[in-house]
Amino acid sequence: MSEQIAEAGRGSVNAANLTRNDYKGAPSTLCQGCGHNSIASQIVAACYELDLVPEQVAKFSGIGCSSKSPTYFLGRSFGFNGLHGRMPSLALGAMFGDHRMKGIGVSGDGDTASIGMGQFKHLVRRNLPFVYIVENNGVYGLTKGQFSATAEKGLELKKQGHNPYTPVDICMEALVANATFVARSFAGDPKQVKELIKAAFSHRGIAVIDIISPCVTFHNHDESLHSYVYGKAHETPLHDITFVPAREEITIEDFEQGSVREVELFDGSRLVLKKLESDYDPSNRWRALAMMDEAEKNGILLTGLIYVNTEQPSMYDLYNLPDEALNRMSSDRLRPTRESIDALNASMF
Amino acid sequence: MTQEPTAVTENQQTQAIVNDFCITFSTVNGSGSATANTTLLRALFKMGIPVTGKNIFPSNIQGLPTWFTLRISKQGYLARLEKDDIVVAMNPATFSKEQEYVVPGGVLLYPDDIKLAVTRTDIHVYPMPVKKLTKDAEVPPKLRDYIANMVYVGVLANLLGIDLEKIYQALDFHFKGKKSAIMSNYNVVVAAAEWAKANLEKKDNYRVEPMNATEGYIMADGNAAGALGSIYGGVQFVGWYPITPASSLAESFQEYLPMLRKDPVTGKDTCVVVQSEDELAAIGMAIGAGWAGLRSMTSTSGPGLSLMSEYMGLAYYTETPVVVWDVQRVGPSTGLPTRTAQGDLTQAAFISHGDANFIILIPGSVTECFEFGWRALDIAEHFQTPVIVMSDLDLGMNQWMCKKFEYPNEPMDRGKVLWEEDLQKMIERGNGQWGRYLDVDGDFIPYRTVAGNRHPRSAWFARGTGHDEFGRYTEEPDVWERMMNRLLAKFESSREHLPLPEVHTMPNAKIGIISMGSADAAVIEARDQMLAEDLPTDYLRVRAYPFSQQVKEFIRNHERTYVVELNRDGQLKQLLTLDNPELATHLIQVSHLDGLPLTARWIREQIMTQEAK
Ligand SMILES: Cc1ncc(C[n+]2csc(CCOP(=O)(O)OP(=O)(O)O)c2C)c(N)n1
Ligand code: SF4
Ligand SMILES: [Mg+2]
Quick one: CA torsion of A23, A27, A31, A37, rounded to 10 degrees? Predict the structure, then answer.
């Protein structure tokens, strides 16, 4: 097969000269209809549309059905499937290998809000530039249907009976830990998921997206908060989101005057948030917390960009790093000079 | 061996004891005695006299008794002594007890405001006017307690003949040339020395004399040495969480990185240090960095090592290089966190669940802490596996006279890492194939690419789940077995590639001693003592696990080999037995655990008693 024919057979390409296929992973082994699958597809779509080079993205996960999904997207990217609840530390260390790369982690509600709560919050407070997706189904899928920390109080599950405890809200935990980008979405709202992922990749800091992602096998009763039916009935977007890449001009005329807010992201791209019922300001952390609290009381699934702060220095900014990748530094730049050892010994008496 | 207390005789007064005694300082934790003690240590060292200093301190910041012993040894022995020749008793709370430990003919120095009874009649007693001399010193009241310790420095200088000029140099070094600090301390030293000269009649026999025995040596602690060795080894990522006695290792990076590790090209930093939220995260970060091609490490002590065990298994199975320093303390649980032991050895060897084995390096001196600092990084990257370096509190936190640090005599071994062009060649060589876990060279060590490699076929997926030679998920029984057997073969192949044991023999020796780590100092001295009593010994110091073939031969060649170590269960003996079941009867456990460094006397007594049977 000549190169030309191969080219022609590739279908449409993006600005990185790659096809959608170049962003795909292995076929999913998760259950048909699992919310996690739809999120994996949106990660593929977002990366394709962002023209990311797969070799310059690293992907990470913990343990769970959700954490299996990094094999189902970005097959040409380096990945590390770590330990249950310990993906944040693994990713943090790894991202310093080549800090010019993009990083994405996929976790579950058990992985993040139970066993991994500590690492999650500490990754957040360090503000590592990293897309942190929680595929939140309110249950432990992989271990077959136990309550997770995000399951609502009173939830009834087949093997477990009633959940006696109040739930953890991942977005609120992120906000309290000073996250600089917090969003919530719903696997049943793929367009919003995709736009949020694109924005998250363009944010210089931690970007937490808590995505309600129904487990069709163990936790999909119509009346439970993490089901498709409930989500469809109760999703209330804060705004209509459009991600505008840096290279594209947007004309405000495209939108009705006074009806949009814009958030400029680190790389010059923008998020256009079109007002829906009320005008929501995602730069007020306190207001965000109050609103989340209110929505939770009323059983409303609020989705959209809950909070963003583009001013906070990222973790990389706190280190005096060279522009090039640390992992490409040659040995002679890593070992102090032969002469230095004499001065060192002289100082040791 | 203990002598009956007798009154000090004329005879004792005339036999000078020169450069061979020990001084114990008994103070209250947090009273600032460290400056005074290290000043004496440095001054003696500057006089060319072999000297070591050991802290015995409680797990507390302020208020409890703490001891510092300074051993002066013309023969260069560095181990702890069980007796006190000279005691400086600054702490009223332990004053009465302290007297009991002084050898007959020994010396007791104390502040004259301690009004407690001196019950011993067979020792020399010198009260010191500490209050008066510090008052005269004209320093701010809040500094008085600190300065008070300089009084005993001055009195000892006079009594023992320590050169004041050397004390000045020591202070100058300590206060980094800051004149006001140097002088406010030095003035007290001089005043105290003058007071002693005018008022004390020296009756004891202890003296120091300048020697020329510290040439080529430095004074350092193992933690700083470990950090420095790692810095010379090109460490690029350190994740750590504070814990005694390991903290000062990681903190040394803060001290030394700015001067040693600015990139010569850009002037930027080439090593990232992150204080993590716990040890689970410290090891996770270090493994992430190691996977991404950085030379990475963490440092901890027993409790932290326990927390790292799950991640260690992941690193083992994914073949990720990482270095873990374990500066051991006394366990289990919180144990005695400020006391020393070698009790984590078996935990380290078998850390993590399932079939896993780990390379261990065991430095026996501060100089070796430096050397193993860089070697560990080489070994980890060479074998693509975790390496645990086992130090301990005694080695890590005490001041040892040791050989100068030597510049690494080997180029960095970065292992089999493929960048874009290498990978292209590899693919061409492999007829279009390359697999992360393929044993291409037949040495059980595969090739790896690291994140950031832009070759479109460079990426692979690291996973703790079953994988084949190409990193693909599989549960195939034979693949699992094959992969696990290769990992074992790789581990086995490291035996002769690790620091080999150090062997010292004596003519006509019939029995052997095997030991490790900081126990070395006491073993060396004990062997000389036993030789003096006609019991020559051969000695092998283990420096790495898995053990070299030499270890087996040593055990085979000695009918009885005493395994000397600092723990209850004889953990080194356990590992030796596992490796040499056919020789198990040759091994005799000599293990001891009281939280204090081993002494030559104890070892000698154990072995001589056994041999007498
Ligand atoms: C240390 C440890 N404890 C327990 C487990 C078992 N385990 C595997 S996945 C999982 C829960 C996963 O739940 P979640 O993160 O919500 O992912 P989901 O499967 O629901 O997507 C548990 C408890 C494990 N792998 N490791
Ligand atoms: S068990 Fe639930 S979470 Fe797991 S793959 Fe199936 S649907 Fe998804
Ligand atoms: Mg879940």
Answer: 10
Domain boundaries, given as residue ranges, for chain B: 10-207, 220-403, 420-496, 502-612
Check B218 against A331: CB less than 8 A apart.
no
Cβ–Cβ under 8 Å, residues B328 and B516: no
Residue boundaries of the structural domains of chain A = 12-348
Q: Which of residues 77-96 of B touch A (CB under 8 A)?
A: none
Half-sphere exposure of B153 (CA within 13 A, CB side): 33
So what's the pLDDT on residue B610?
A: 97
Distance CA A49, CA B401 (A): 63
Ligand 1, atom 10: closest residue by C-alpha: A64
Q: Do A267 and A202 meet the contact criterion of CB atoms below 8 Å apart?
A: yes
d(CA B195, CA A325): 63
Strand extents, DSSP E, chain A: 57-61, 78-81, 102-108, 130-136, 139-140, 146-147, 156-157, 161-162, 181-186, 206-212, 235-237, 239-244, 260-264, 270-275, 301-308
Nearest to B407 among A76, A82, A341 (CB): A341
CATH annotation of B502-612 = 3.40.50.920
Look at chain B and count its residues: 613
- Measured by CA distance, the residue closest to atom 2 of ligand 2 is A215
Task: State the nearest Cα–Cα gap between B294 and chain A, in angstroms.
Answer: 5
- Residue B32, both tokens: 């600032």
> Tell me: the pLDDT tens digits for B170-223?
999 999 999 999 999 999 999 999 999 999 999 999 999 999 999 999 999 999
ipTM above 0.90, yes or no: yes
In angstroms, the Cα distances linking B113 to A41, B66, B97, B117, B141 are 81, 20, 17, 12, 18
CATH number 3.40.50.620 given to A12-348:
no
Q: Residue A55 and residue B461: Cβ atoms within 8 Å?
A: no
Radius of gyration over alpha carbons of chain A, in Å?
Answer: 22
What is this structure's pTM? 0.96
- Is the separation of the CB atoms in B181 and B144 below 8 Å? no
The sheet carrying B272-275 orders its strands as: B272-275, B237-240, B296-300, B322-328, B386-392, B359-361, B544-545
pLDDT digits (tens, 9 = 90+) for A106-147: 999 999 999 999 999 999 999 999 999 999 999 999 999 999
- Token code pair at residue B90: 């600054």
Q: Which residues of chain B have pLDDT under 50?
A: 1-11
Residues 114-173 of chain A whose Cβ lies under 8 A from any Cβ of chain B: 118-119, 122
The model's confidence at residue A286, banded by pLDDT at 50, 70 and 90, is: very high
Instruction: Give how far Cα B198 sits from Cα of B125, B159, B194, B195, Å.
Output: 16, 11, 6, 5
CATH number of B220-403: 3.40.50.970
- The two counts, helices (H) then strands (E), for chain A are 12, 15
The domain covering B10-207 belongs, at the CATH homologous superfamily level, to Pyruvate-ferredoxin oxidoreductase, PFOR, domain III (3.40.920.10)
Answer yes or no: same fold for B10-207 and B502-612: no
CB pairs under 8 A between A and B: 208
CA dist., res. A39 & res. A188, Å (int): 9
Return the best residue to mutate from A143, A210, A215 for the ligand 1 pocket (most ligand atoms within 8 A of CB): A143
Interatomic CA distance for residues B104 and B4, integer angstroms: 8
Burial of B88 (0-12, 13-18, 19+ CB in 10 A): buried
Nearest to B595 by CA among B59, B88, B2, B41: B59
Q: Which one of B269, B294, B371 would you mutate to disrupt binding with A, by most A Cβ within 10 Å of its Cβ?
A: B294
